[in-house]
Write a structure and sequence with these properties.
389 residues, mainly alpha, Fumarate Reductase Iron-sulfur Protein, Chain B, domain 2, 2 domains, 19 helices, 0% strand, elongated, binds iron/sulfur cluster
Length: 389
Amino acid sequence: MGDGTVVTPDLDFVKSLKSSGADTVKRCYQCATCSAVCSLTPPDDPFPRREMSMAQWGLKADLAADPNIWLCHNCNECTKYCPRGARPGDVLAVLRKQAITENAFPGFLAKIVGEPKLLILTFLIPIVLFLLILNATGHLNIPDGPVVYDHFFPIHYVDPIFLTSATFVFISFVISISRFWKNLNTNPHKLMAEGNLVKSIVETLKEFLLHKKFEKCTVNKDRTWAHRFVFFGFLGLFITTNWAVFYIYVLGWHSPYRVDDPAILALFNGSKELVVLCYLAFKGFGNLSALALFIGAVLIFNNKAKDKGFVTKMSAFDSSFNVVVMLLFITGILSELLRWGNVANIAYPMYFAHLVFVFYTIAFLPFTKLAHMVYRTTAIVYAKMANKD
Ligand code: SF4
Ligand code: SF4
């Protein structure tokens, strides 16, 4: 008799998968219909049948080393045709969420952000922080006069908070993605990544920008546009933020809505029209990006509502992030309208709420649904380098 391989199921891991939304995982009887219908699976290493088996056995380490769970774009073609209702697409989504939590640094924060029941706690962190800062600096009141947000929460307090958050996000991603890459690259059953890194990154980014893989899915086609809106919305807001940094810290244009600032007029050869144009371009681009984000979030909810959970179930983790995206947009637009309308009593609290949602989106980025962008990019780069894509 040959030596057998001893497999020890990690029952706690299986339990945690089931409680996170993969409650159907045990129904799978390994017929492989899912792998046959998946339009994204590579022919020489098909998914998601094998991943379903690994999840049933609780093979946590093997799943952590498996880039396949990230090559899946959650179209749920497999879920539609699974004869056992095991919902492999949703199981893979839960595995991705688990991978983020397992690799994340610091782990305790990932656990808090990853638990929708604790969502309120994640809002309390910026609320308490902002209140303490406003109180300590004597700004915990509604300023007199026309609504100017800088008078309530000065930009020189806001910027260090978000700069520190961005630095934290960078460090957290460096540590988390290093762990993730190490996991991917230690699986003895797979090729070690050895291809051209730069070429793989360029190809992956092209795929991302064009959303080509989404178009391959037929069951859930509407998802492509929803995803495009969300992706380009966030990209636009990222560009807008850097645009604002350029205006404020490079040009010294501290109040972009004050187009008659003599110092700024001097920068534009005294042309007020040019100043107005630059201001409108900045504002317009930012608002369009926010609108794209909102449309994407609405489309995501709309698609799920049309589907009624038949093909795709939306996890609490996904829907809570979607709600935050909508609140980010709504509070942002209302802050702008209320400033124009000079309704100070509502404008300042609305701006405060908007900053709370901005903080959530930026500071907790390595642990929310948005972290997918970084993990998926890494896994696809790895897969390309290992010739698995
Ligand atoms: S998940 Fe469904 S389709 Fe896939 S192997 Fe299991 S039972 Fe078959
Ligand atoms: S959800 Fe779509 S991409 Fe993912 S395994 Fe199923 S069929 Fe393939």
